């Protein structure tokens, strides 16, 4: 018997662990055809924002092998199936950034550090200037106790 995916935030978990699934993968096609530089996804609470973003991440992320979890979905019947796992992808979710300000800041910093760790190889051959900037930004991210988000935007854009 299939389970109802209450509280599930991971597309991979949804597909691998026998949950009911409504195929929204055509959203990927719509996203690609729109060609927008920025897409703002607004929905009410508990309306599937995180799981849809997780689906996008699973589809595009070059560090993953997502063939099995997308098998039999609508996106695989489109020309965009060839885009599966072809791009470096940063996925940062603020779904768990709740409670007081210090907890929210800590959660956000932790999310960014996890992405830095996932792509640590990007930082292997930095110039002296880039290494200094990296070390400075990393020290700001690792300071969880200051309750300060300074440097977050710089830390994310440092990937590019």
Task: Name the shape in a single word.
Answer: globular
Query: Count the helices. How many?
Result: 7
Output mean pLDDT.
89
Q: Give the low-pLDDT segments.
A: none
Q: Tell me the distance between the termini.
A: 45 Å
| Backbone structural class | mainly alpha
- SS strand fraction: under 5%
- Radius of gyration based on Cα positions: 18 Å
Major beta-sheet overview:
none
Helical content stands at: 40-55%
**Total number of beta strands:** 0
Order of helices and strands: HHHHHHH
If you had to describe this structure to a student in words, what would you say it looks like?
- Helices cover 44% and strands 0% of the residues.
- The protein contains 7 helices and no strands.
- The protein starts with 10 loop residues before the first helix and ends with a helix.
- The mean pLDDT is 89.
Secondary structure elements and pairings:
Blueprint lengths: L10 H6 L9 H9 L14 H12 L6 H4 L30 H18 L9 H15 L9 H6 L3
Entry keywords:
mainly alpha, 160 residues, 7 helices, single chain
Quick recap:
The protein is mostly helical. It has 7 helices and no strands.
């Amino acid at each position: 018997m299939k389970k109802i995916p209450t509280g599930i935030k991971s597309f991979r978990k949804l597909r691998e662990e026998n949950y009911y699934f409504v195929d929204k993968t055509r959203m990927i096609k719509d996203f690609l055809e729109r060609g927008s530089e920025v897409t703002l996804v607004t929905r009410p609470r508990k309306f599937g924002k995180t799981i849809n973003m997780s689906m996008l991440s699973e589809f595009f992320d070059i560090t993953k092998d997502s063939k099995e979890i997308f098998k039999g979905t609508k996106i695989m019947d489109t020309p965009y199936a060839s885009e599966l796992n072809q791009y470096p992808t940063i996925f940062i979710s603020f779904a768990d950034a709740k409670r007081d300000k210090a907890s929210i800041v800590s959660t956000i910093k932790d999310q960014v550090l996890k992405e830095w760790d996932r792509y640590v190889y990007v930082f292997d051959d930095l110039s002296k200037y880039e290494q200094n900037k990296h070390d400075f930004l990393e020290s700001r991210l690792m300071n969880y106790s200051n309750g300060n988000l300074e440097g977050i935007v710089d830390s994310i854009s440092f990937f590019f």
